[in-house]
């Protein structure tokens, strides 16, 4: 990226992702209110086309662009297909959305994004990936993975939820904050203990005597590595507890974005630039070769022998070029100049056509 942080402000983007009913929208509402109270009003995007009513006012609301019920009718889809198609249609306009954000970015401290309840619609769709990558290319973007704490107290459920979070981390590759929500109902200390002390989690697992327990044992070993990449906070979207802890985790995630995600992104962009350059050079070399063959004679293209080519060249000279100069020997120089000029034009045209074909192939 060419801009430097000192020149342009880049507010962090917080993507709220989580299982249906985990409290994403309520968390967004609470965070929005908290930031307003701190005189740092965020820019808010709602990407859930199926939400009936929003408890906060969104700067950009997918429901203003697409009506998912109409989409269902028009494309003959079920509810999930309707939501996915609505998100796809919205994504085709995402460059305009980015334009709106860019205009406001300098005056913002945070950008909040609410996602559809059906988690896989955002995390496993091309649209979700496009939106995440587009935002992350410009702004320090992170996932706030919202967890319904009271529903994850069973070791097996906890592990399933963590595995899901793990898959999203590896898919999005952006900094990740685990947000244990609803701590007013169930404090999240048990989860922190399970994540930091492997033996305590093993003990909890051993109480589960199902046939899955040995598989779960080995899975929990894998998760140990995953936990080291995470920031963990406990919040209550209802009472507002833990909001400042969450904002601290956001600051840490911004540092992680700058130190790890951004250099990797720049490396990938540089790799892509070099690959395109190499492809362009190869195309040009091929083009030059084609043109050189054209110069030698059309016969080469049609697979005729060398003698035949030579003969044809002589015939060509006779038929095409000579008669034009034969009667006008005085102005032979001028005519040769005209011929060279025409020849240059013909070459330029060939080159232009070949370049157009190359561009068409790129698209
Ligand atoms: N006790 C308690 N309830 C909460 C909390 N956060 C959300 N809820 C409740 O959980 C339910 C679901 O909350 P939503 O904010 O709609 O959850 P969501 O993840 O946006 O749901 P979908 O978008 O439908 O997937 C609601 O009844 C909320 O009142 C919390 O911190 N504490
Ligand atoms: Mg919601």
TrEMBL record:
GO molecular function terms noted in the UniProt entry: GTP binding; GTPase activity
Residue segments, region Disordered: 297-363
Alphabetized InterPro entries for the sequence: Gpn, Gpn1/Npa3/XAB1, P-loop_NTPase
Compartment(s) of residence: Cytoplasm; Nucleus
GO cellular component, one term: nucleus
Pfam families: ATP_bind_1
Protein's job: Small GTPase required for proper nuclear import of RNA polymerase II (RNAPII). May act at an RNAP assembly step prior to nuclear import.
Protein name: GPN-loop GTPase
């Amino acid at each position: 990226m060419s801009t430097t942080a000192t020149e342009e402000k880049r507010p962090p983007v917080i993507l709220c992702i989580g299982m249906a009913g985990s409290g994403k929208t309520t968390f967004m509402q609470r965070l929005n209110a908290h930031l307003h109270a701190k005189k740092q009003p965020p820019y808010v995007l709602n990407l859930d086309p199926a939400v009936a009513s929003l408890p906060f006012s969104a700067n950009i609301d997918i429901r203003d662009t697409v009506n998912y019920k109409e989409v269902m009718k028009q494309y003959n889809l079920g509810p999930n297909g309707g939501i996915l198609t609505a998100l796809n249609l919205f994504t085709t306009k995402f460059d305009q959305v980015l334009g709106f954000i860019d205009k406001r970015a300098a005056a913002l401290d945070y950008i909040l994004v609410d996602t559809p309840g059906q988690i896989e619609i955002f995390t496993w769709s091309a649209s979700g990936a496009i939106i995440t990558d587009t935002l992350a290319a410009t702004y320090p973007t992170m996932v706030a993975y919202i967890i319904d704490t009271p529903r994850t107290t069973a070791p097996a459920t906890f592990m399933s939820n963590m595995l899901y979070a793990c898959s999203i981390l590896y898919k999005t590759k952006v900094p990740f904050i685990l947000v244990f929500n609803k701590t007013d109902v169930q404090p999240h200390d048990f989860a922190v203990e399970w994540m930091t002390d492997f033996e305590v989690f093993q003990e909890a697992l051993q109480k589960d005597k199902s046939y899955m327990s040995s598989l779960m044992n080995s899975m929990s070993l894998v998760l140990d590595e995953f936990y080291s990449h995470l920031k963990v906070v406990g919040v209550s979207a209802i009472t507002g507890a833990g909001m400042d802890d969450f904002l601290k985790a956001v600051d840490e995630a911004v540092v992680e974005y700058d130190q790890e995600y951004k250099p990797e992104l720049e490396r990938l962009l540089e790799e892509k630039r070099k690959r395109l350059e190499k492809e362009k050079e190869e195309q040009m070399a091929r083009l030059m070769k084609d043109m050189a063959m054209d110069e030698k004679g059309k016969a080469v293209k049609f697979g005729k022998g060398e003698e035949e080519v030579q003969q044809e060249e002589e015939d060509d000279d006779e038929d095409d070029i000579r008669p034009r100069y034969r009667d006008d020997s005085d102005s032979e120089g001028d005519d040769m100049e005209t011929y060279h000029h025409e020849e240059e034009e013909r070459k330029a045209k060939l080159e232009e056509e070949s370049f157009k074909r190359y561009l068409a192939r790129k698209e």
